[in-house]
Amino acid sequence: MIERIEQLSRIESLLRQNRVVALLGARQVGKTTLARQLAARRRGAVTFFDLEDPLHLVRLSEPMLALAPLKGLVVIDEIQRRPDLFPVLRVLADRPRSPKFLILGSASPDLLRQSSESLAGRIAYRELNGLSLAEVGPARRDRLWLRGGFPRSFLARGDNASFSWRTEFLRTFLERDVPQLGLRIPAPALFRLWSMLAHWSGQTLNSSELGRSMGLSDVAVRHHVDVLAAAFMLRVLPPWHENIGKRQVKAPKVYVADSGLLHALLGIRTRHDLLFHPKVGASWEGFAIGQILAALDARPGEAFFWGTHGTAELDLLLVRAGRKYGFEVKLTDKPTVTASMHIAMRDLKLDRLDLVYPGTDAFPLGERIRAMGIERVEAEYGAASG
Predict the structure, then answer these.
(1) CATH number of the structural domain 5-127
(2) pTM over 0.90, yes/no
């Protein structure tokens, strides 16, 4: 088990400031483990409810009677199964001596809407992603890239065991979780779409072409992509538009959010398989972007990609407090400045541009342009994100 100190500190800080904190993330990403680690660090009473446990559901059959007398911290896992609890939490959150509530949720596009309607002004949100390079250490970088950030996948005894866990996760998600999302598409068809998106990972979304391949409308494809993104299975980077008099890309860029799930969808079992696979560059790009966003603790509405038709592209643009930070990601041991990077610096008026590569060093490549080894990302950006 890996103790996620930074995540624990951030959740504790949110609980000091808010009556209700929602910890959101994919299934099996470690939300329950993190909640139990947090409970072990707290003084006072802690009460757990797991809404997948029939006995706990019985205890909450009269939620006001069950929750009102409690003190300390109350943890409610899989909250999306009982949206009727949100109005009860609103009433209790307004009482001066009510407990603090930590609610855990996954795989529900309605979760944010439900909680926002009932708990506006009373709730803070925290998204939990998979394990990061900062949490596992630079020595295990290649394992993290290959297996992804789901704790059970990363900590498996071998690559075959990890691959088996991920393929079973995919099957369970498609057969059990997808129907709960209200997505009316057979599991085999959705698996085919997901597999196609894996081969498109790191490219702009062409919903019309994907739709023709599957016999779906482009509207249906976009809906399915939105659902998978809301379930934390896909990372969608919206396009950034600048008033520069050039035709700019309007479609979003799509990645399989976890590199380990990407590799399972592509049939990649070992590091050797990965390094000789035609999607290795796209895999590295998605992995590195995830590490950058984790180090910067990027919020919704801060991360974009940018491109013009036929001239320039920027893998990641972070817009924060009026400043613009650009990131290019390259799988190379000899990072160099490209013409596209110069265009992005000029057209977007970037405050800084970093080329992230699989190394350990950082060094200048030009004015406000640096090469940044992936192992330096947390040290460079972690403190600033706090």
Answers:
(1) 3.40.50.300
(2) yes
